[in-house]
Design brief:
The protein contains 11 helices and 9 strands. By secondary structure, the chain is an alpha/beta fold. It has a 6-stranded mixed β-sheet with strand order 1-2-3-4-6-9, sandwiched between helices. A 3-stranded mixed β-sheet has the order 5-7-8. Strand 1 and strand 2 form a beta hairpin. Helix 1 packs parallel to helix 3, helix 4 packs across helix 5 and helix 5 crosses helix 6. The longest helix has 19 residues.
C-alpha cells in the first residue's frame, strides 16, 4: 500500500498505521481508498479480533491534505460529489466494522483526523494531543465528519467546535467525549495494550452482535419495537456456541476458548 502499513499479531490484533508522516498523516484520495479497502478486508477476516488505528511520526492525522483540497476547489461539482461520497463511505466503513476498533491518538487530530478518531469505537489520547474541527479556517465546513462529532459530544459542543475551529487539549477532549481516556504520552502504548487485553477477554461474536444492535438504537423512549428487537437479539444469541462456551468457562473457572493463551 502507498499510504498505510498493516500488521497482524498472533492474537488477532490488526494494526493499521497511517504512514504519511511528512504531512502529519493528512489524507488524500489514495489514503481514503486504502483505508476503505483495509477496513473492509479486516472486517471480513476471521483471523482478526480487533483493529488498532494509529499514525506514524509526530501526529495521528492532520485531516485533509491541502493539495487534495486545492484540487477539489478547482474541480467540477460532480467530481467533488463523487470525492465526498468516497470519504463518507470510508468513515462509514470504519464505523460499521464488525470488529472492535481503537484509535491511538497522539500529536494532532485535526478536521478529518477528528472524524477518524470518532469513527472508531474507542479512542485513547496522549495528554499532549491537540484536537480541532478546523474546516472553517479554510472556508469550508465539517460536513462529512459532522454526524460523528454531533453523536460524540452533542449538538451544542459540536457547534462550538465547528464554528470556532479552535484547538483544544486532550483533557478537554476527554471531558466532552471526543476520546475515552487521556494518559501521559509515555503511558500511551501501555494504556492501549491494556484496552486491547480487555477487549480480547470478550466473545468476538458477542462484540459483533453489540456493534450491530447498538447501531440500531437511538437515544430516546424505549418503544415496543425497540424492546422486541432487544428480546429477539438476546434470545438468539443465548443459543449460540459462543454463549455456551462463555457460561461453561465461567462456571468451570477457566479462560474461555477465545481468550489468547499467554506465551
Amino acid at each position: 500500500m502507498e499510504t498505510l502499513q498493516l500488521s497482524l499479531d498472533g492474537r488477532g490484533v490488526a494494526t493499521v498505521t497511517m504512514n504519511r508522516p511528512e504531512v502529519f498523516n493528512a489524507f488524500n484520495e489514495a489514503m481514503i481508498a486504502e483505508l476503505d479497502q483495509v477496513f473492509a478486508q479486516l472486517g471480513d477476516d476471521p483471523a482478526v479480533r480487533l483493529v488498532l488505528l494509529q499514525g506514524a511520526g509526530k501526529a495521528f492525522s492532520a485531516g485533509a491534505d491541502l493539495q487534495w483540497m486545492k484540487r477539489a476547489s478547482e474541480a467540477t461539482l460532480e467530481w467533488n460529489l463523487d470525492d465526498a461520497r468516497r470519504f463518507a463511505a470510508m468513515l462509514d466503513r470504519i464505523a460499521r466494522c464488525p470488529k472492535p476498533t481503537l484509535a491511538r491518538v497522539h500529536g494532532l487530530a485535526l478536521g478529518g483526523g477528528v472524524g477518524l478518531t470518532l469513527a472508531c469505537d474507542l479512542a485513547i489520547a496522549g495528554a499532549d494531543a491537540k484536537f480541532a474541527v478546523s474546516e472553517a479556517r479554510f472556508g469550508i465546513l465539517p460536513a462529512v465528519i459532522g454526524p460523528y462529532v454531533v453523536n460524540a459530544v452533542g449538538p451544542r459542543q459540536a457547534r462550538r467546535l465547528a464554528l470556532t475551529a479552535s484547538r483544544i487539549g486532550a483533557d478537554e477532549a476527554g471531558a466532552m467525549g471526543l476520546v475515552h481516556e487521556v494518559v501521559a504520552p509515555d503511558a500511551l502504548d501501555a494504556t492501549v495494550d491494556r484496552w486491547v487485553d480487555e477487549l480480547l477477554l470478550n466473545g468476538p461474536q458477542a462484540q459483533r452482535e453489540i456493534k450491530a444492535l447498538f447501531a440500531q438504537l437511538e437515544v430516546g423512549p424505549v418503544t415496543e419495537p425497540v424492546r422486541e428487537l432487544t428480546a429477539q437479539t438476546i434470545a438468539r444469541v443465548r443459543k449460540t456456541d459462543e454463549a455456551r462456551e462463555g457460561f461453561a468457562a465461567f462456571l468451570g473457572k477457566r479462560p474461555a476458548a477465545w481468550v489468547p493463551r499467554q506465551s
